[in-house]
Amino acid sequence: PAIPDKEGFAGMYAGVSNGVLIGAGGANFPDKKPWEGGEKVWYDHIYYLEDRESEWKLADQKLLRPIGYGVSLSYQDQVLIIGGSDAEGHIDQVYALRFDREAVLIDEDFPDLPIPLANMAGALVDGVIYLVGGQRTPTGLAEDAFLMLDLKQPKALRQWERGPDFPGQSRIQAVAASHEGAFYLFSGFHLTPGEAGGTERTLLTDAFRFNPSSGTWEKLPDLPHGAAAAPSPAMSVGRNHIIISGGLDAATLLHTDPATHPGFQEEVLAFHSSTNRWIAIGTMPEGASRVTAPTAFWNGQWVIPNGEKGPGIRSNRVVTLDVKNPFGWVNWTTLGVYLVLMMGIGLYYSKRENTTNDYFLAGGRIPWWAAGLSIYGTQLSAITFMAIPAIVYATDWRLAIGSLMIFAIVPVIIKYYLPFFRRLNITTAYEYLELRFNLRVRLLGSITFILLQLARMGVVVYLPAIAIASVTGMNILLCIAIMGAFSTAYTVMGGIEAVIWTDVIQVLVLLGGALLALFIALENIDGGFSKVYEMGMEHQKFKLFEWSWDFTEFVFWVGIVGFFFLNLISYTSDQVVIQRYLTVRNEDEAAKSIWTNGVITIPGIFVFFGLGTVLYVYYLTNPEKVGATNPEELLPYFVVAELPLGAAGLVIAGIFAASMSSLDSSMNSIATAYITDIHKHYWAGWEDIRYLGLAKIVTVVTGLFGTLTAMWIAVSEVGFIFELFQRLLGMIGGCLAGVFILAIFSRKANATGVIIGIVSGAVITFLVSRFTDVHGYLYGAIGVLTCTIIGYFSSRAFPYGQGQPEGYTYKTLVKKTKNK
User: Is the CB of residue 461 less than 8 Å from the CB of residue 484?
Assistant: First the structure.
């Protein structure tokens, strides 16, 4: 909606506070145009817009004075008003506006500028304000000052400082941008003394980048074909582009008759920060090019409120740049059909879920290949699906060692662990711990598992929902609600059987979608695979190993050791994975399912890691293509922007399903652990049908908990609490793998010793994470080894602790009949 002023304003301030767009101040010629002798008027009005469907409202609060032509920035739900000018001169004042319950409040607790300034350029980079240029007085020459204010400092310590000398000419009305942790400055006017005490303007076309980490300026290529941006707004879009929408060029500047002025240039330029290239990427809508206008990023759009559309001529229109690609009805239909299919799977298998054995273990009816795909799908969450290409895009292939380490662990699982999970007629892994030790150890293991799953459910739904909501335009709460409702419904109806078969479809869709994205990206790279290989080698994108003994970095041995133990933890003590071993007919088929999971990892490496490298080359060789702003949105953004209609909807549906897979696996496994390990102990003797009914109730409750937790994180930004809780529980959960090592391989281990080992291992792992620089991938190894070693020697120190080695250690169990 247009701002409710018939003229509109130039030199406004704009920003976002608590989700509300604010526009304030500025100046215009309300009675006559300047060439007709009209007088310029400054304003102190504050307007705000709550959403695109409403109208601008005029706040009761006003600015501290009528003002315009300063710098405005959004920071922590405040809109900073920095310097500017009024009818009497230029100003050094700095303050902030904050929207609160239909009112705009003013916070004056900011240090004033060291000098009065107007017509300067500024941007906010990682909490630090950077200002360049401007004028002290309306008739003065341009300044070359480079000023900085660190807003991360306590208010009492904040003060403006002069930064490293700016290497260019002094200037006014330049264009500034914050992009990928750097400060950019483009164009502007250099002022020289003119006749009768005035000044003459020289149009500049140069460009500079300031790197805060090194404290150095870098000269960039000039704007192309003599074009200049000053004083047009600039917008950071994606990870590689700074967009300059229209502005001035030399030809426009020479047009001196304002009455017949054609307006400012409509060409839209983008600076590609990775290749330091300028690209023309289109034109502004007719009459929408602006100068002396602010920008603000609001609800997924860049907004340019008002500004000058010609010399002395304002516009009250608000121009927006949407950084999302339209998802389209075809993709929405595909997504809807996919979700209905998931429900159909749950409904189909609901007819078989007549006992707890059916509900928890599918009655042993799952084919080995489906169980193997389900294990792979369980490990491949939506976070992983989006994260791997994004990490490879930014770094290299070193993480592939983690996927390869599955082959080191599979033979160990099949030979030493699988017999215990298959031959003892158990439903949860923790039942074995009671047989080997006592009830307390079983309950400790089961309760830790349940709490860990509860802690992660909200996070694993919330994080993918951010990316999906961003690239599709769907409301994030609706996105979370759909995931939670559908996954809960088909899990309640179809139990583990529905969970596994939806996992199978999810894996096929994700792999197929990733392959399609890979081929489409390759098709649009000039030179195809050979170009990817050439540039990948040149930019060291295929690096697999980093040779060093440094335990603080992800070097080769850290990857080998870390991922061996991380895989050991998942495949030996996590009920979500172990439950899949128990859904097939016999031990041989369980072994085949584990090998299936391992074998499918190989093409998965080439697909997902290769996709990250291909996307890196794709965006580097196609600089006109705008990518995602956030790393986690890299793949879904590419999918929506570049994949054919329908295919994009299917891949996004696959990401939905991967999130739902994480949720449904947790729900069913929590219900399994609670009923089998806890409820049946305290409320024994129920009929099986009652346990089945209760299992479904537990599934609904946990699904509701995961959904509401994800929503709470989304609206209150408390995700760090759950991540911390998950991390702490993970340290205990990691130690459970040490308990299984002691149970299976040591006849001397007993309940007292392993409980001491669990507590000691968790404490030591926490202390290492808190007070050392040991790489995070080693925490699992530290937890397992410390629990095993301390648990063993504690068992020797307390030899009469409860334990039953006969028939329940490896040496005694292997004598039992295989495939029983």
Answer: yes
Query: In whole angstroms, what is the distance from residue 112 CA to residue 84 CA?
Result: 12
Cβ–Cβ < 8 Å for 371, 665: no
For 169-178, 277-286, 610-619, 781-790, which range has the lowest pLDDT when averaged over its residues?
A: 277-286
* Mean per-residue pLDDT, 228-256: 79
pTM of the model: 0.84
Residue 757: both structure tokens together = 């080992």
Q: How many CA atoms lie within 13 A of 727 on its CB side?
A: 15
Q: Which residues pair with 72 in a beta bridge?
A: 81
Residue 31: both structure tokens together: 């009675």
For residue 595 the two structure tokens come to 């090998």
Q: Are 753 and 707 in contact (CB under 8 A)?
A: no
Token reading at 375 = 């294990």
525-541: average pLDDT? 92
pLDDT tens digit string along 259-271? 777 778 888 889 9
Pick the range with the lowest mean pLDDT from 369-373, 507-511, 716-720. 716-720
- Residue 381, class by beta-carbon neighbours within 10 Å (0-12 exposed, 13-18 middle, 19+ buried)? buried
For the beta carbon of residue 785, count every other beta carbon within 10 angstroms.
19
Token readout for 178 is 């914050």
Distance CA 413, CA 598 (A): 12
Q: Is the pLDDT of residue 817 over 50?
A: no
Query: Could you tell me if 779 and 769 are in contact, meaning their C-beta atoms sit under 8 angstroms apart?
Result: yes
For residue 194, give the 3-state DSSP assignment.
Answer: coil
Return the ∠ at Cα 603 (arms to 598 and 605), rounded to 5°: 85
Q: Give, in degrees to the nearest 5, the angle at Cα 740 between 738 and 742.
A: 70
CA angle 267, 273, 277 (to 5 degrees): 55
The DSSP output letter for 251 is H
The pLDDT tens digits of the residues spanning 546-568 come to 888 888 888 888 889 988 998 89
Residues β-bridged to residue 185: 176, 208
Please say whether the beta carbons of 498 and 362 come within 8 A.
no
Burial classification of residue 650, based on how many CB atoms lie within 10 Å of its CB (0-12 exposed, 13-18 middle, 19 or more buried): buried
Task: Give the torsion through C-alpha atoms of 805, 809, 814, 815, to 10 deg.
Answer: -10
First CA to last CA distance, the chain? 72
Residue 226's pLDDT is what?
66
DSSP bridge pairs for 58? 47
CA 187, CA 279: separation in Å to the nearest integer?
16
Confidence of residue 820 (pLDDT cuts 50, 70, 90): very low
Residues constituting the chain: 820
**Mean of the pLDDT values across residues 115-127?**
95
CB-based contacts of 52, cutoff 8 Å, min separation 6: 1, 299
Q: Tell me how far CA of residue 217 lies from CA of 111, 165, 183, 321, 444, in angstroms.
A: 26, 8, 9, 29, 58
The CA–CA distances, whole Å, from 522 to 337, 394, 601 equal: 29, 18, 22
Position 55 scores a pLDDT of 94
Average pLDDT of the segment spanning 758-781: 89
The amino acid present at 746, given as its one-letter code, is S
| Inter-CA distances, 547 with 98, 143, 209, 258, 395, Å | 52, 51, 34, 67, 16
Which residue is listed with tokens 């009816």?
A: 365
Q: How far apart are CA 141 and CA 138, in angstroms?
A: 9
Contact of 769 with 742, CB cutoff 8 Å? no
What angle do the packed helices 476-523 and 647-673 form, to 10 degrees? 130
Amino acid 791: pLDDT: 94
* Selected residue with higher pLDDT from 322 and 737: 737
Measure the CA–CA gap between 2 and 17, rounded to whole angstroms. 19
| 819 has a pLDDT exceeding 50 | no
Kind plus residue range of the DSSP H or E element containing 469 = helix 439-472
Within 10 angstroms of residue 485's Cβ, the number of other Cβ atoms is: 16
Q: Which of 168-172, 222-226, 727-731 has the lowest mean pLDDT?
A: 727-731
